[in-house]
Amino acid sequence: MTDYVLPPAIRAEAEFAPSSGIVEVFNYGRDREGIIPLWAGEGDLPTPAFIREAAARSLEAGETYYTAQRGLPELRQAIAAYTDNLYGGNWDPNRFSVTSSGMHALLMSLRLISGAGNEVIVPTPAWPNFIGAMTTLGATPIEVPMLYGQAGWNFDLDAIARAITPHTRAIVINSPSNPTGFTASYDELEGVLALARKHKLWILADEIYGRFVHDERLTVGNNRAPSVRDVMREDDDVLFIQSFSKNWAMTGWRVGWIEAPPRIAPVIENLVQYSTSGVPVFVQRGALAAITSGDAFIEEQVARSRQGRQIICDGLAMTGLVDLVPPPGAFYAYFRVDGVSDSRQLALDLIDEAAVGLAPGTAFGRGGEEFLRLCFAKSPEMVGEAADRLATAINRRGGAVRSALA
Amino acid sequence: MTDYVLPPAIRAEAEFAPSSGIVEVFNYGRDREGIIPLWAGEGDLPTPAFIREAAARSLEAGETYYTAQRGLPELRQAIAAYTDNLYGGNWDPNRFSVTSSGMHALLMSLRLISGAGNEVIVPTPAWPNFIGAMTTLGATPIEVPMLYGQAGWNFDLDAIARAITPHTRAIVINSPSNPTGFTASYDELEGVLALARKHKLWILADEIYGRFVHDERLTVGNNRAPSVRDVMREDDDVLFIQSFSKNWAMTGWRVGWIEAPPRIAPVIENLVQYSTSGVPVFVQRGALAAITSGDAFIEEQVARSRQGRQIICDGLAMTGLVDLVPPPGAFYAYFRVDGVSDSRQLALDLIDEAAVGLAPGTAFGRGGEEFLRLCFAKSPEMVGEAADRLATAINRRGGAVRSALA
Q1: Chain-wide mean pLDDT for chain A?
Q2: For chain A, which terminal residue's Cβ has fewer other Cβ atoms within 10 angstroms, N or C?
Q3: Do A321 and A275 belong together in one domain?
Q4: How far apart are CA B130 and CA B182, in angstroms?
Q5: For residues B336 and B188, what is the distance between their CA atoms, to the nearest angstrom?
Q6: In terms of domains, do A184 and A238 share one?
């Protein structure tokens, strides 16, 4: 990796990082009149006013100076309190560091534990940025396809176990999952944790959709999905990636947090110093308002996305041509259309035929390439219109298939 | 580097990254009553109201969604126009990408061109984050001490040439320099550029203090220092690191830009995607206001820092115990006290003896370890008071030295 490039070329791991597979479709459809954009993982509501106002007050007060690398102490304290409240326990505030987005938390997690010569296991389909970020670091992502059946998606624990080598450093657990909505049961979480303990591996736990759980059997305490922290000991080697983006409709704010064993805090401080040098204070004031006063908004958001889920599942089921198990968590429908294996082409076609923007399964790695991802964290009207348009286009295609076969 | 750590340890290049050498002094003095904090590279003015208001309006308008990875097109266009206006020429807007701070621009630059097995030449004394960031990437910083004499600091071109090996990938040019205020002449810029061309190396040009030039002989067009771009061809392999922090008193905003040959734009897009996924739109609105309407503020800031420079140079010269060549650029005095070689201890002592916070030269690498860095981008009153206190403490010490010798 190191020496075959001739100066002044650029590093291979930077040059050959994969582009997100969603971009091609997005660029194809972004300027279409009347397009319903369901390709990104983002709701249609702006950040609540009380959060925006907290940031604006901070700007007005002139909080425009350098700040603590790992975040304002009061924000880190509030994150710890939120965690205690939601998950139980009394977690050391020194576990939590504010980051310049959930993505930044993920990148720092990966930099802490992986690089050239290391493998990281990623159950797929998965958010493309896991594999993208690993690639830019020279680490090797090992994709392990999940099992798919009548009950939806599940970890393939045997396959994960078989994928472990002496080079393995970590296993990713993204639950609830982007893109599938898969939500791990305690059995599954314990299964992965046991493998990690046995082989001395890190767990990278991305639980940013933890509040978005729709299946009662997988709902803990009425408001969240099962968490790795429910089955771990405090000294287990787990790095949690968290974000303000989804819970509080703050995708554009670029603020998240990483949670790590306290012994690593000084290392994280350095990685923040030498990457972004912290998060603007006024952004942190917004985040503080969100995490201390934003529970009602989360409840509204979850209820709204559950409504969208119902509409899209019903609408697509009516076609009789779609394979979609209602997702237990997150806010995506991940579905395939009978007889279609090329999701990239289908996503492009559906822009022309339905004016609905979806993300192709090819973007999410092995095991779900023929699926499409649809974000239903939108108004019921928008999701309803998208469902109608998609059903019409799919029926038309289905009809065409049926006539050809007749 | 790769395999000697036993899982689940953390990566050596992360674990052993150096902490900033300023932190110890900062922690020692931060809570002292009446301390005058001149240790950080930050002025004492908040961001101008028109910039803060532009961001607040964006927040109020609900601009809280994901945005373009490389920045708003109108901001990138404005950066290109600012560059054309200040430096002349007609630079391709595709050269410019908005980043999550100047530090983020530096880290991405380093990730583009260096990693394990690569060496990067850094003339020192230098901003500690150059070496810190390289270390976290597994690259090897090669410190080349600058020359120091009656005329101040200069590049040691012969030493730079001798430091080049087959593993060298880049040479850092930080002009005007943090911490020394060194400002490269055209001869020096051409000398480094010739070496880079000859050996096919990248130049990393950090010109974030380019507007802060105090020596008329080094002032171009009445408002800036000589730039690498004045001597380069557009196709030279130069990466520019830029920041909104210093020009517009926006240190806390975490927004900067990287300028690179246009062919690298897609790679930068990926590195942004997989690191912070962009800069908040409302932050960019502030940056846009700054770069389009902030020239008068820069002029005020430069005039104010020039006043601070005069006060501190005069005040310290009066002691007859300080070696300080008035810095041609930036907003730091970099000086040493007769008979003192341990700048770390002196910085700690001056907190006790003068209640003034300075950064020790030990933080800035080889060649200036016995110096102290003082930021004079503060009100004349504050700088004056600091000069008085420092002069008193240094005279007292000087007196002690003289009595001991008598």
Answers
A1: 94
A2: C
A3: no
A4: 16
A5: 25
A6: yes
CB-based contact B275 A271, cutoff 8 Å: no
Instruction: Give the C-alpha separation, B337 to B284, whole Å.
Output: 43
**A112 with B11: Cβ contact below 8 A:** yes
| CATH code of the domain in which A321 resides | 3.90.1150.10
Average pLDDT over residues A243-257: 98
- Give a yes or no: residue A132 inside a domain: yes
Number of domains in chain A: 2
Per-residue pLDDT of chain B (406 residues; tens, 9 = 90+): 344 344 577 888 888 777 777 888 988 998 999 999 999 999 999 999 999 999 999 999 999 999 999 999 999 999 999 999 999 999 999 999 999 999 999 999 999 999 999 999 999 999 999 999 999 999 999 999 999 999 999 999 999 999 999 999 999 999 999 999 999 999 999 999 999 999 999 999 999 999 999 999 999 999 999 999 999 998 899 999 999 999 999 999 999 999 999 999 999 999 999 999 999 999 999 999 999 999 999 999 999 999 999 999 999 999 999 999 999 999 999 999 999 999 999 999 999 999 999 999 999 999 999 999 999 999 999 999 999 999 999 999 886 665 655 5
Residues near B254 by beta carbon (within 8 Å), at least 6 away in sequence? A100, A276, A277, A278, A279, A280, B100, B101, B104, B279, B283
Query: Do A209 and A246 belong to one domain?
Result: yes
* pLDDT tens by residue, A133-168: 999 999 999 999 999 999 999 999 999 999 999 999
Do B76 and B196 share a structural domain? yes
CB-CB neighbors (< 8 A) of B13 in chain A: 115
Q: Do B270 and A113 touch (CB under 8 A)?
A: no
Q: By the CB < 8 Å criterion, does B237 face chain A?
A: yes
- Is position A143 within any domain? yes
Asked if residue B221 lies in contact with residue B232, where contact means CB atoms within 8 angstroms, the answer is: no
Per the CB < 8 Å rule, is B64 touching A253?
yes
Give a yes or no: residue A134 inside a domain: yes
Residue that finishes a domain, picked among B236, B267, B293 = B293
Query: A221 vs chain B: nearest CA distance in angstroms?
Result: 30
Domain end residue (candidates: A247, A267, A294): A294
Residue of chain A whose alpha carbon sits nearest to that of B277: A103
My answer on whether A115 and A254 are in the same domain is yes
- Point out which residues pair with A257 in neighbouring strands: A98, A242
d(CA A305, CA A401): 33
Which CATH number do you get for residue B124? 3.40.640.10
Asked if the C-beta of B203 comes within 8 angstroms of chain A's C-beta atoms, the answer is: no
Residues 299-358 of A with CB under 8 A from B: none
- Which helix (H) or strand (E) segment holds residue A98: the answer is strand A96-99
Structure tokens at B175: 């002009």
Candidates A18, A201, A252; nearest CB to B8: A201
Whole-angstrom Cα distance, residue B393 to residue B399? 10
- CB contact B111 to A (< 8 Å): yes
**Confidence (pLDDT) at A357:** 97
In a domain, A1, yes or no: no
A249–B20 C-beta distance less than 8 A: no
Mutate one of B38, B275, B281 to test the A interface: name it (highest A CB count within 10 A).
B275
